[in-house]
Amino acid sequence: MADTSTEDKGATAPKLMPCPFADRPIALVGLMGVGKTTVGRRLARALDRDFFDSDEEIERASGRTVAGYFRDHGEAAFRDGERRVVERLLTDAATVLATGGGAFIHPPTHELLKERALVIWLKGDFETIMERVSRKDTRPLLHVPDPRTRMRELMDEREPIYSQAHITVPVAKGPHMRTVARVERAIRAFLAARSSPDKPSPRPGLRQNG
Ligand SMILES: Nc1ncnc2c1ncn2[C@@H]1O[C@H](COP(=O)(O)OP(=O)(O)OP(=O)(O)O)[C@@H](O)[C@H]1O
Ligand SMILES: O=C(O)C1=C[C@@H](O)[C@@H](O)[C@H](O)C1
Ligand SMILES: [Mg+2]
Predict the structure, then answer these.
(1) By C-alpha distance, which of 210, 16, 19, 18 is closest to 119?
(2) pTM here?
(3) Which of 73, 99, 109, 119 might form a disulfide with 83, Cβ 3.0–4.6 angstroms?
């Protein structure tokens, strides 16, 4: 007898639509020290993707450290070079890209990332971020007499822009792999919601920003 169960299921199953975001590179954005590089490297391993870091690529291409580049050429030239590097790194879909903290703030790089990547904001609280940036003295924007005040200013200026990422994942104290697992869950929920738009939103806290 003919099996009609497939047809029956087809009639009731939620409608699945192709989700273009599934084929995009994943880009991590957020403030200095929140974990874009160290979480991104582990996320790439977990998803079997290649990993790139825009700061590292700029350093490789220019033969200078990020701090040296800022000193020799200024921030405006850095942002322009960063945009070119990000554009190059977004050509391969099977990647995770850790961006520099200011990349998503620079309008041309912001547009590029929103158009071509699945953009994930790692959102950290102030004290966690301050503790993490204090481990290394490599960030030129914090080479000021009062780095805490500078970081508060950066947070106030930048958070409204980071919040335009496709997905927001809160980051707290704890092991890197906990953040990796949260990011993976958030990506799955985002893609599932995009494929079947009638589904309710996933857990609060893993916000999808459109
Ligand atoms: N989830 C985490 N748990 C514990 N430590 C973390 C976590 N994420 C990052 N760190 C630590 O915080 C420090 C900064 O992390 P990382 O360099 O990945 O930040 P970043 O966002 O790439 O910063 P930048 O924008 O300056 O490149 C590192 O010492 C890293 O090991
Ligand atoms: O937040 C920023 O503007 C920056 C963050 C770093 O990743 C570097 O890209 C550079 O230090 C600038
Ligand atoms: Mg980094």
Answers:
(1) 210
(2) 0.88
(3) 109
